[in-house]
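tool=predict chain=A
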Amino acid sequence: MSVVDHNALDLSSPRISEADVADYIALLKPRVMSLVIFTALVGLVIAPVHVHPVLAITAILCIAVGAGASGALNMALEGDIDALMTRTANRPIPRGRITQPEATAFGLTLAFFSVMTLGILVNWLAGGLLAFTIFFYVVIYTMALKRWTAQNIVIGGAAGALPPVVAWAAATGSLSVEPLLLFLIIFFWTPPHFWALALFRSDDYARAGVPMLPVVAGPDATRLQILLYTIVLVAVAFAPWPLGYFDAVYGVTSLLLGAVMLALAVNVYRRRERSESLRANRKLFAFSILYLFALFATLLLEVVVRAVAPLVW
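tool=predict ok
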């Protein structure tokens, strides 16, 4: 168990930090960034246009840096919360490795250059959407929602669902149904994913005063919401196939993955005894990551197969 240096928690201290590169990388939330990069890549690749490789790489890098900027600004604003939670107490700010002003300056610098680079070198629709994504995550979610409402994850999930939309806009200079379908999949995936985590981390959130749904409404209400959102998620994820936007391979994959996701959500809803509930929550949380990755990977694979098939046959 980590020991928090209470002297380091004077977040307003003008002290200069002794951070190294690893600390600044941690500010970027690299695990979250990897998901952003992957979903954005899918949004870019499925766009029905040819994108010059330099512009494609530029777009993905800018989206990645924008996600890192959001993570850094989020940590700068939540240093007090992070210090009280076991899961986050080892982040750079609670440990005293980086000060809040340094994290803020770092995040704002990354945000400015990612948006301006994307706008100037690719197009301003993509740049504007990236700016809105950063603003939504930092201001709407982190500052306005997270500390004040149990619906923080539901509404704030829009920020995490926007990267494939930004990438599509970077490729085409416009918006269409396909990226909005990807947005909806991630949007409805977010609540069951994070509430499964919140169920077995509820003590952490309660100690930090964060009104996550299990803390405010209790575990039983959270289990019901997880089940309801999972039902909607499975339906929304399957819909692009019968609507004619994605192919049969995606549709079948969506059905199979959705069946497992729904079964795990039902298991979470049914298991109320503490040890069984903990296992059920962890299983759903872990599988939800695989679910989203596999669903988007299938779309990527379909594009690759369509591109390679004429060369083979």
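DSSP finds 14 helices and no strands in the chain. The chain has two domains: 20-175, 176-313.
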